[in-house]
Amino acid sequence: MRKKIIDPEIVDYLFKVTPERDPVLKEMESLAEERNFPIVGPLVGRILYQLVMLSQARKIFELGSGFGYSAYWLAKGLGDSRSGQDGGKIFCVEGSEENVCLAREFFKKGGMEDRVDFRNGDALEAIEEEEGPFDIIFNDVDKEQYPEVFRKAVPKLRKGGLLISDNLLWHGEVLSKDPDEATKGIQDFTQLIYGSEELFTTILPIRDGISVSIKI
Q1: What are the backbone angles phi and psi of residue 120, rounded to the nearest 5°?
Q2: Ordered domains of the chain (ranges, CATH)
Q3: Lower Cβ count inside 10 Å, N or C end of the chain?
């Protein structure tokens, strides 16, 4: 049941009007295309950057970092002095050691290695062990784990902090009446974030759907 969330011609238009990324981001985008590796892409990346600046975040936790593309956008927001919050740190946990090594190299190329702490391991275990509160938690782990992310992440957010999650529309699979485990995880997570009295949530239908929940 995979669907195009946005008209491909609209997506093409948005890419054409989006300003050029810095060389490191473009290299990461090329690697993702070469390896058919899922990244949030520049349309969502720019939203992450804006949310860091708007929230004046200084402490961010990312669950499931790949080779660091989304973390790179978050880190750029941390380092933008126009936000009035120059500085801060992102704690990133990724299950693939190869991806962690790649991410560290990309951040070194971008001169932002001081803004990130990359770790190889289980993201759900790591967030339980890490001392909060966090200003932003970005979630992009295996989709069947999303409900557990809700249970572990919300208590680690400060009031006014943001829980941001990728793939909330899951290529249209969320419409399935006989969902697989990953789709069911997203469907259940969606019910949790909209039903929570601690969160106010919106799902933005950009790329594959990104949810933004503020802890109230």
Answers
A1: -95, 120
A2: 8-215 (3.40.50.150)
A3: C
SS3 164: strand
Q: Are 159 and 198 in contact (CB under 8 A)?
A: no
H-type alpha helices, the chain:
8-17, 23-35, 41-55, 69-78, 97-109, 123-129, 146-153, 181-195
Average pLDDT, the chain: 94
Distance CA 105, CA 122 (A): 21
- Going by C-beta distance under 8 Å and a sequence separation of 6 or more, which residues neighbour residue 18? 42, 43, 46
The pLDDT of residue 86 is: 60
Locate 202 and state its tokens. 């919106």
A 10 A CB-CB count for 215 gives: 20
Q: What is the pLDDT of residue 41?
A: 96
